[in-house]
């Protein structure tokens, strides 16, 4: 019996070794270990063995079965591995072939620049407020301390609908609208389209965008204005940027200033972008003029405030090194595609 | 405003500063320097030389060999081709190793000038070069004494070896300033000099004014009457007789040239010089032409005609102020004098006028006349009355000093309503509170103000503003004066304290942002187009004559007809952009614009129009109607408009293909429309690809948008799925069938899907085959076979009424 089993095992191992497909291996498992398999058949012969031999023989047959089982299972692992390997070799691809990506559209450079500005101010607790683009003359000029006969009101600069209604020349009228509501404190920005009677060329467009800002509260100071705008500039252009405030004049602020930032192209050394000055003019700002407070019914003995305004196109052109403003309104896809 | 630094230094004698520091300090104290240029930047080793001898060049007919005394031990040999040089002349010579700005025959002025070195001309050594005015980088128009095409000849009494650059006043720098409209005083050199004095804490010295005039009295010669003291606040006259017209001295000519003003003769040059100094224009009349020796300042009559000194006939109106004599007009006030009283070369006696006219009136008059002059551009800024007085006194000083004529004694000064002195309550605490600077003391402030000519009166606690600072009104103005002299840079940077604010965007903006994000997600790129367009756009878009869209807001003064109306429909912008891309052969272009349209409530406009934001999408070569419809649906998904939208073919947009267009309806309201561009309109825009557009009215989307989401439990009970295949008359739309499916299925309808549409083959003419998969599910129990069968049969019964049959 023992020899028979040894022979069977040896023969099984040899056969299993030569198998090279999983289904053949399975057939072999059935042939040895299945219901009608050789081992099962041998087990059935146990009933003919003597009582004392039976446990020993039984043990012996069982051991053989376990060994064959293990052998088949190892072989199965080996085969599976080999086949997977072959399959994977077959599935090999050229990973440098082009991708199949959805076509995502592109943002206009103005919008990208605006989004960055919005994020900075919203982070500082500013609300985004919208205002009409066709505006009363009174809001665009009068309430902003721009008197009736001011040259800016000339038809050379302002588009008129009639004597009382204009295309707003600045986003500042939104300041007046917000102040008149009388809800304080005010911290707001207002982005939008403005219009000036300039013929189209590389640096002018009759229609462009500004972002206005206004803060009104008790005890707001010029130092706060400086601090806020400096923070804004470093967030927008990077923390190594320097800012410079120069005295300037706007009818609706006093004191007024213009803010320059150190040229972010040459880091202030002087280049073509900053016209060799090392500085780039970015925005106008100042403390809200007492006359504006009066005209907007704000109690100037209680409140102080600052306002600022910047041209979006100017920032977009500078940031993306675009040298012709007309490109912004042409909408050639080869231009738009360069912005994300 | 362009001025040589030497001129500023004349009034700020203590100012010693290099160009860079000057530029920086002026800019940060409020007088922005736009740029500056050293006049001698390319001029090196140019000295006066006496031509001792001249001989013909042995090898060249047109060249001369000169021996020149340059003040050294031995004479230099210089070869020249110039024809205007003679023995004994004093000429500028650039020595070898020196530099000039340009050389003869070069059109462009090289950036770094031209270096001159020793060399041979036709075999003869030449040790330097004689210079023309152009070689100094100067324009002959501004140096009328320079010969055309020749060497610049110096005075005979100049010492050989003298620095000619110095002699021509070119060791100087010209600064260009940006002057803000409130600082009228800084349109004059004296104003800028005052600022420089304040910025550098130096003393300011007024331009020299001496008492002028002979023993006569001008009142014996002339009288002046102002009939409109609103338009003419002050009128000053002085007289000069025995005029000797001659060229001005070199210093004056050179100074004007450096400021970009052409020297003419002594009288004109003095007027221009004083105008530069004070920003105050003056005018001169020939006394002998003034009828009745009387000047009357009054308004013109409507329709009156007048010939100005440029020989042009001008039509006047009642709002134009005129200078008249006893009989007729002799000048347009503040704009231009008359032909009839103009100064000619043979003039002997003249009347000098310095006046203060109303700035706005001058500006408007000059615009109506189409005549903007140096004088009008100064007057329109609104000059201070005091500068008229200073200017005329200064001019008379120069006339006497230059010997240009004999100034008549006395002055006529009509100044009916004198300007009051401006005084402001000085509140140092308020200034500190506004600036956020507790640390600037009252006395420091007084010191800064004093530097600017603003005096503090201890007794009244007020500050007294100088007459030339008509921009100062309030404490806030004083705060700016203090801050800029203290230095904006020195003020702390802090962040606002106080109540925290939440910040953020409105719901409306959130919806708009969601819509544009969806558009980009779908492959559309953002564009921007102008808000105004041509009224011809309506014809281009096939819009009918009586369409409400044609009622657009009109601009009174547009840049041209093409930009004259505010858009009432956003599609022209996107079509122009698509057309541009198509023309440039860009393939498969998808664009969007978040555009505003302007719908007037009534015309003409009495209140502001309704400004509506609309998202407009357009593409060519990227799919068909259903791709656009899918895009629109995705946008609604992103914007939280979740209910059922219907697409009605009853769309009236004439620029869309009549068989491929739809209005998008939601709860009975139009959310927008979409469709294929009408082939005719496509032709109008020159796009020969099938183009699809969609417009979504963001304002209406906002009404229905809702970003709140509630979780519905995932269904536990099984669904039942049925397919029905129908034969449908061609005219019946899928929408009609789907309405019936929805209505008959009731609450157990989970979803349905059209999975096949087919025409032809076994289907009869005039019919199409449509197959739907319908899924039913009950949320609380398992559905029974028979209830679903009942519903299907109800649906089919209803469909039968439309002549729709089940396909076998």
What does this structure look like?
The complex is a heterodimer of chains A (340) and B (808). Chain A is α+β, with helices and mostly antiparallel strands. Helix content of chain A is 41%, strand content 19%. Chain A has 12 helices and 9 strands. Chain A starts with a helix and ends with a helix. With 808 residues, chain B is α+β, with helices and mostly antiparallel strands. Chain B is built from 20 helices and 39 strands. In chain B, helix 6 (266-278) runs antiparallel to helix 9 and helix 13 runs antiparallel to helix 16. Chain B folds into 6 domains: 2-39 and 173-200, Phenylalanyl-tRNA Synthetase, Chain B, domain 1; 44-167, OB fold (Dihydrolipoamide Acetyltransferase, E2P) (Beta Barrel), CATH 2.40.50; 218-414, Phenylalanyl-tRNA Synthetase, Chain B, domain 3 (3-Layer(bba) Sandwich), CATH 3.50.40.10; 423-490, 2-Layer Sandwich (Phenylalanyl-tRNA Synthetase, Chain B, domain 1), CATH 3.30.56; 507-704, Bira Bifunctional Protein, Domain 2 (BirA Bifunctional Protein, domain 2, 2-Layer Sandwich); 720-806, Ferrodoxin-fold anticodon-binding domain (Alpha-Beta Plaits). Classes of the chains: A alpha+beta (340), B alpha+beta (808).
